[in-house]
């Protein structure tokens, strides 16, 4: 009896039936399926140190169980000191049984080792049924010996399906065990925001009262006309001028020393 991966048996026996029932397919051939998984990793620093390519090749080979190949640059970039044909990354494409085996290990072993893992994001679909996932650390895979790695680095994993829409692809990957994040309550807030509060509508209708209040400037104009009284008050400086004229009396008082001198002369004559 030949060996068959667990997820492959799960797909044939259960996933196909559930997808046909959910999306109402007429033919089994319409059911989407997983075609391939591509694991890729960019190594830009390999321009200066070509040994980094060898390390990346060994890591991707150990993770996937299939020999990885180096990807070459397609053109010259002088600012990066890059020449056409230089190795700048590694990749491997998995199909068939190795594809299902890697997906099984990835879902059951690697993802649970991610720190504070709450599920993978559902925003990585490209609109044509393909899903892209980024891994920030290669040490989540049990095949990697943390004592032998020279640098913590990540990789990109692409799931290529035959689905026509992202909804079908997401349902297929969910049935195969890929844990997507559940929608939070924050995503349902727009339903509450669409209901306009009655109190706000009532408050918005009050501008008529505000218009009535704005018409009151006539009273303010009447109040502003009172400066005539202020002008009358300002005219009182005439009285102040009259008061200021009193220095004449002071001058008369100051002239009295002459009378005092005349009295002194008369007293001297009498003596």
Helix content: 40-55%
* Count of runs of 4 or more consecutive helical residues: 12
CATH class division of the largest domain:
Alpha Beta
What is the approximate shape?
globular
Low-confidence parts lasting 5 or more residues at pLDDT below 50?
Answer: 185-193, 229-259
- What is the number of strand segments? 5
Given helix and strand content, the structural type is alpha+beta
Strand content: 5-15%
> How far is the first residue's CA from the last residue's CA?
167 Å
Order of helices and strands: HEHEEHEEHHHHHHHHH
Strand order of the largest sheet: 2-3-1-5-4
Overall pLDDT score: 76
Query: For this structure, what is the CATH homologous superfamily of the largest domain?
Result: Ribosomal protein L5
Rg (CA only): 47 Å
Number of domains: 3
Outline the structure in words.
The chain has 271 residues and is an alpha+beta fold. The chain has three domains: 6-183, Ribosomal protein L5 (50s Ribosomal Protein L5, Chain: A); 196-235; 237-271. Helix content is 46%, strand content 12%. It contains twelve helices and five strands. It has a five-stranded antiparallel sheet. Helix 1 (6-23) packs across helix 4 (166-175). It is globular, with a radius of gyration of 47 Å.
